[in-house]
Amino acid sequence: MKKLVLFSFMIAAIGAFALNAQATSIYGYTSFSGTLHTDGTSLADATTIDLFSDVVVSTHGGTFDYAAIPGNEAVSLSSPFTFGPFPASASISDFWVIDYAGTQYSYDVLSSQIDVQNANQLNLQGTGLASIDGFDDTDSIWFLSVTGAGDRTTFTLSTLVPPDYEAPSTIPEPSSMILLGIGLLGLAKLGRKKS
């Protein structure tokens, strides 16, 4: 009986370790909108976003791991954000942060590049690291689209996690499969001893 109890404990410990060994990556999409002010007289000569204001989650909120955040939830965006002259050093910790229902969602910008820049339009994109309480930090991509001029400059910012935005994989890692195999071999050996 002692062997059976010990063996059951060992199987439970292996199972718990195998579950903890799997990564919980973030998956989903979210976007924001608001107004901003740049250092240039027009978007064509801007190199820095001085101030983001009136920033909220877009009305459709987000998908999957971001779905809990409702539309129009206030968002804090870090400024100034320097994007030029290209290539700019764009690494920004906590570029955006949302605290909603006891969970913190945040995003670090790792790189940026200018796609379009003229008097009335500025499009940027780059890579980043998404963070949500209870999940592993996950690589992602972001897009910022700015239109207008002067005090009427508006923007949308979108974050896609992971960068390929495909259905999340549930393939266990090799160490989990090895532990499961050891447990099954142990059960087979115990079954042979009983018979």
Features:
195 residues, single chain, alpha+beta, 2 helices
Q: Mind explaining what this structure looks like?
A:
This protein has 2 helices and 10 strands; from the N terminus they run H-E-E-E-E-E-E-E-E-E-E-H. With 195 residues, it is an alpha+beta fold. The protein has 2 domains: 1-22 and 173-195; 23-166, no CATH class. Strands 1, 2, 3, 4, 5, 6, 7, 8, 9 and 10 form a 10-stranded antiparallel sheet that branches. Mean pLDDT is 80; it is low at 16-21 and 167-173.
Question: What would you say about this model in short?
Answer:
The chain has 195 residues and is of the alpha+beta class. It contains two helices and ten strands; from the N terminus they run αββββββββββα.
Query: Using DSSP, what is the number of strands?
Result: 10
Number of domains: 2
Please state the overall shape, judged from the principal axes of the Cα atoms.
elongated
Strand content: 35-45%
Largest sheet: 10 strands, antiparallel
Mean pLDDT reading: 80
Task: Please compute the radius of gyration using only Cα atoms.
Answer: 24 Å
Helix fraction?
10-25%
The SSE string, one letter per element, is HEEEEEEEEEEH
Global structural class:
alpha+beta
- Low-confidence parts lasting 5 or more residues at pLDDT below 50? 16-21, 167-173
Give the number of helices: 2
How far apart are the termini? 15 Å
